[in-house]
Amino acid sequence: MTLHDSSLSPGEELWDNSAELERRCRLGSEVTSLSRSFSTEKSEHNFRLSSNLRYCLSITKLVTIFSIVVLCSVSLAIITSAQPIHVSLDSLDPTAMNLTDFRDNALLKLQVGGPFMTGMEGVPAQEYILIQVEQMVEIGSRRKRVQQILHNWTIPLHSKRNDQILTTRTFEIAPISINVQASLLDNQVVPLSMTHQSLYVTVETQVVIAGVILAGVYVLIIFEIVHRTLAAMLGSLAALAALAFIGDRPNLKTVVEWIDYETLALLFGMMILVAIFSETGFFDYCAVKAYQVSRGRVWPVIIILCLIAAILSAFLDNVTTMMLFTPVTIRLCEVLNLDPRHVLIAEVIFTNIGGAATAVGDPPNVIIVSNQNLRKTGLDFAGFTGYMFLGICLVLLTSFPFLRMLYWNKKLYNKESSEIVELKHEILVWRQTAHRINPASREETAVKCLLMQKVLNLESLLRKQLRTFQRQISQEDKNWENIIQELQKKHRITDKVLLVKCVSVLSIVIFMFFLNSFVPGIHLELGWIAVLGALWLLILADIQDFEIILHRVEWATLLFFAALFVLMEALAQLQLIDYIGEQTALLIKAVPEAERLAIAIILVMWVSALASSLIDNIPFTATMIPVLINLSQDADVNLSVKPLIFALAMGACLGGNGTLIGASANVVCAGIAEQHGYGFSFMEFFRYVLPLFRVFAFFNTILK
Question: Which residues form the Citrate transporter-like domain (predicted)?
């Protein structure tokens, strides 16, 4: 990026002249208020409001959100969480609990922790725990009499008594006692922890509350009322308050356990690796080489980038792929005078498509292949990958021509000269740098004032260029050979020693990612591998100023994912995901038998795609698998489970393209682009992916 030197070095007397310093600080505060209105380019449909109306809307927004936060905080403060009861069972010593604090309309939520087998409830086993919930009901209209009703819950035990697994079930009754028995092959003792809670809201009401909270979060993100990270935090707080209100308040330890730390560690480690890698000039060098290979033509480069991203995502994590591709794409677009946002959106779409091609490319596929009940039906790694790979190849062949029609040249090129585009981006970078300085001392205040003066000078220069510039749509540059020579002189590898270290560490990290997917003897998760790789590179690179590297980490993105994990788990506790699965099963059963399989496949795929674009596809996939298995085992339905599982995988993986927060790769790409000054909003992403999303769904429906 070319730096303009207008009035950047006013002389050393600025530091000693207090009057001049105060004037600069006042100027800086004025520019700060001005930059807030200039920093973000709003959509074309936004209309202009008067200053008084904007002030009223701002105050209304502030008061409303703050009131909701205070209300949620109070509900969490006055309501306590249930304490677990620890018991030890053997075959000869059952345990009974009498419950007298339940109202007539209450639901019983029972959570049991012990050495259980995951995903095997209801399957016959030699060793198991039997929980009997007893209820006394009155029957008869005239001469009422009391009848005892028992609800049995069987949980199979694992042969190894090491792991403690939590399992939960809700009973829509008002119980009076709970009996727990153990069926063991020997005289061993099984330790259990039990928690029972009274829920005073029906399942339908809980689903409505969860839907309102989810809709509120999307309203905050779509209309950019607050930053998406703050919107996720507000949504998670509201969901936790709703759980407390219905009587199911989780404690802090439980909420922390909801966060997927492996994903956060993967993101953090890769951010450190990419931050150090960018110091070598490798991304600029790759951009120039790509421009040289394409001979100045845009679409060959875009197609190659999208195809490579899709292939890598079939074997690597989608997040890792986008973290490696986003910086290269941004530099390439700056060289070609393209708008990086359009190219990044295309890349992230094909990244999500490629991740669905194999059993290890996307988390929903991993969950499906690792399910023991599905393996018993003959759904193995090779068969699943072969079917999904064929379907995704056909999707890719359809997507490229449609993408070419959607992204025409006039939509890709910047409609201004490269000098004006570069100047605008430089202004944005200087402004962001000034905002990140916390003026804790006199010298830091002076530096911030200097930067704001720099912004003012550049904005004045920009206005002059805009007044004299006649807008023309850029065409393919015929003098690309001369441009290549200039770019090669300007963009070259700056630190070859550091580049060798970065390439070596990154190659080892990616190789370990592959081994983790295919070699069961590797006991390091992806998060561990990324963090260890970052630690290796930090030592080899001999980083002296560690704060510079930490500034390159997308802390807002990490916090967004942490809040999103809590939000999705809280919505699952409010029965939202279970309700979607149950209603889907009921709709399939209502279809005539002659058309049931075709309708079931279409319905499962569409519901999965729509749900995965709104909520996290990992808990949704885990919830839908037992629903589909039970549906296939129902004699009245008579459906094969394999086509339904393939429809679930297609919908859950490709549904992430539906919205900006539908997939982790989308959020990571948006965060890195925003850090480089090319952020795109929820609606900008949605406007470009909606036509492709329709094509994916239609084509997969025909494929089924």
Answer: 218-651
User: pLDDT higher for 101 or 336?
Assistant: 336
One-letter amino acid for residue 688 of the chain: Y
**Mean pLDDT within 188-201:** 83
DSSP code per residue over 231-247 = HHHHHHHHHHHHHHHHT
Cβ-based neighbour number of residue 176 at 10 Å:
14
- Give the largest CA-CA distance in the chain: 101
Shortest CA distance to 280 belongs to which of 487, 459, 522, 494?
Answer: 494
Of 650, 645, 607, which Cα lies nearest the Cα of 371?
A: 645
Q: Give the Å distances, CA to CA, from 562 to 210, 241, 640, 658.
A: 19, 17, 37, 21
**691, 38, 694, 680: which is closest to 329 by C-alpha?**
680
Contact 543, 216 (CB under 8 A): no
Quickly count helices (H) and strands (E) in the chain. 28, 8
Radius of gyration (Cα) for the chain, nearest Å?
29
Distance CA 689, CA 662 (A): 12
- Residues 279, 495: contact at Cβ < 8 Å? yes
Please report the pLDDT score of residue 2 as a whole number. Answer: 42
User: What do you get for the CA distance between the two ends of the chain, in Å?
Assistant: 49
Find out whether 298 and 414 touch, Cβ atoms under 8 Å.
no
DSSP one-letter string for 527-577 = HHHHHHHHHHHHHHHT-S-HHHHHHTS-HHHHHHHHHHHHHHHHHHHTTHH
Asked if residue 526 lies in contact with residue 498, where contact means CB atoms within 8 angstroms, the answer is no
Return the HEC string of 523-536: CCCHHHHHHHHHHH
| Pairwise CA distance, residues 130 & 54, whole Å | 62
> Do β-strands 165-171 and 107-114 pair in parallel, antiparallel, or remain unpaired?
antiparallel
Q: Which residues contact 246 (CB under 8 A, 6 or more apart)?
A: 199, 200, 201, 206, 209, 574
pTM of the model: 0.77
Give the position of tokens 């905002």: 435
Helices 480-490 and 282-294: crossing angle, nearest 10°?
A: 170
Which amino acid is located at 324 in the chain? L
Q: Which residue shows structure tokens 């935090």?
A: 233
- How far is it, in rounded angstroms, from Cα 527 to Cα 538? 17
If we measure between CA atoms, which residue out of 85, 188, 86 comes closest to residue 127?
Answer: 188
Question: Lowest mean pLDDT: which of 81-95, 407-421, 638-652?
Answer: 407-421
